[in-house]
Amino acid sequence: MAQAAAVAKPPRPPRRRRASATPRRLPYLLIAPAALLMLGFIAYPVLSVFYYSLQEYNPTKPWRNGFAGFDNFTHIFTEDPLFRDTLVFSAKWVVVEVGLQLMFGLALALIVNQTFVGRALGRALVFSPWAVSGVLTSAIWVLLYNSQTGVTRYLADMGIGDYGVSWLSDTSTVFPAAVVADLWRGVPFFAILILADLQSVSKDLYEAAEVDGASRFKQFLHITLPHLKDAIILSTLLRAVWEFNNVDLLYTLTGGGPAGATTTLPLYIANTSVESHDFGYASALTTVAFVILLFCSTVYLRLSKFGGEK
Amino acid sequence: MITKEAVVAAPAPAAAVPEPPRPATKRRAWDEAPRWQIYLPLGVYLVFTLVPFYWILLFALRPAGSTSLVPWPVTSVHFEKVWTDRSFGTFFHNSVLVGVATLIMTTLVALAGGYALARFDFKVKRAFMLALLCSQFVPGALLLVPLFEIFAELQMINSLGSVIIAETVFQLPLSMILISNFIKNVPYSLEEAAWVDGCNRFRAFRVVVLPLLRPGLIAVGSFAFVHSWNHFLFALMFLNNQEKQTIPVGLNTLMSADSVDLGALAAGGIIAAVPVVIVFAFIQKWLITGFSAGAVKG
């Protein structure tokens, strides 16, 4: 093979032809592995969810399995109070989490974008929870919130609050407690993305604004913020979808409790399919969740005029 | 030379003429906020970030039942217990396998696809891009049941392969979009020049483009690793055999026990954190340049 190639006398022309001739099939070959994987393990499961949503399907009650038409959907919208409750909680969870994460993430990014002594170390430390998993975050905050040996005990030692308080098992405190735990690892995500985008703001703009006597706040408002707009829109959207879908943290931290107080829609769906094996109904719920998500994302992108005015 | 120009596009070029006499107003430039405005909020935030880390370290290192706020005398009892009695040694091994395999598969597949998206115009390109974006809205957690059935059909339940495939698939779309953006940032003319010099397309890519993609690939690869290291639901669903489980599942088991062994949980948490923290410390710098190069622009 190698010899044959070496012998070929005019090396250029055939190679030229190959370089210009390959592209026709090459791109398809290159995307084939990705496309096949996604067809098999995303598209096909999604379609089967749509299919099951029209079925009564429960492996533990095979005698009832069969075509159900829109029964599952009518049940969701007319007879299932849990659907409404969990959807409302999901919305609250996503809005609060993404809002706070963006606020703190933006502030944090602006701070560590300054030049100061110890910046590299400061960045590494404040970003570090980003790498921590939902389950590990839960483990850490379970230790912190533990009623016997958690922070409340030491606070009580100092005269703040009572002994034996468990923030995770009280319906009035569980929401803020879970929010704080998720903020802890969510803020660095925004901070990293925004900091990355801040690197591309032209310094000249600030200098020009300086010459014109604009205050630092005005510079932020008129230079930094418009520059960050697209990055902020995209990262809030991605994060909102992620916060909506992700069940790791709540599943392990509160298990959706106490008394269902922290059950999001996906958590409810997971329980329906994994614990009650009601796959048909879970699939219908999934379909509804998917439509809601797609609808909200489209509206959000439209309203925020993503990518416009540039 | 080329490397630097192409990749380090982010930092502004050093001012052409450094003007020595800096007027007083210059001190109030955006770059130079009053020190307390930096250190005070940063310090407060650091407390919030670090206290939880300290807390888990405290529980992992102090003897059970101790209420001391300083982990002294240090004990390794919890680590020994969790590593052998609670099979974290096995879990660790499995997690490493899953993480590394996911990293390799995601990077290779996304690199091929990303190159096609960056360098060619082909018929289904728009449809494919749309599919990539849409897949971002597909909740992996909600596809557990059909995925379980597929893997059961393929006889892959209880094999790490199922988790590796599932993790890779859900990492792919974003990785591919990022990598195609990184490739777009490398001028096509560099590749064309290599062809003229007698390289074929693959060799030109390997010699010219690949080295320039390093920050981006490090960002994408470590993303895939950290994500699959951390992710929990697929492993929980597809691996029933304790011999096959991964660290997050082990942590969950510790947490959902009737009486939680806090020391073991903390030690298990530290074992779970160490690899990602090391990866993170190593890639942190690349992450920011990587993202700013791959930022989706309009």
Describe the protein's architecture and organization.
The complex is a heterodimer of chains A (310) and B (298). With 310 residues, chain A is mainly alpha-helical. Chain A has a single domain, classed as MetI-like (MetI-like fold). Chain A has 14 helices and 2 strands, in the order αααββααααααααααα. Chain A has a two-stranded antiparallel sheet with strand order 1-2. The N terminus of chain A is likely disordered. Chain B is an all-alpha fold and 298 residues long. Chain B has a domain of 166 residues: MetI-like (MetI-like fold). Chain B is built from 13 helices and no strands. At the A-B interface, helix 2, helix 3, helix 5, helix 6 and helix 7 of A face helix 2, helix 4, helix 5, helix 6 and helix 7 of B.
Question: Can you give me a brief rundown of this structure?
Answer:
The complex is a heterodimer of chains A (310) and B (298). Chain A has helices at 2-7, 12-21, 26-53, 71-79, 81-112, 119-127, 134-145, 151-157, 174-198, 203-211, 216-245, 248-253, 265-274, 279-304, and strands at residues 55-56, 66-67.
Return the domain count of chain A: 1
Rounded Rg of chain A = 26 Å
The assigned structural class of chain B equals: mainly alpha
Order of helices and strands of chain A: HHHEEHHHHHHHHHHH
- Main beta sheet of chain B: none
Q: Please bin the fraction of helical residues of chain B.
A: 55-70%
Instruction: Tell me the overall shape of chain B.
Output: globular
Main location (chain B): membrane
InterPro entries (chain B): BP-dep_ABC_trans_perm, MetI-like, MetI-like_sf
GO cellular component, one term (chain B): plasma membrane
Organism (chain B): Streptomyces toyocaensis
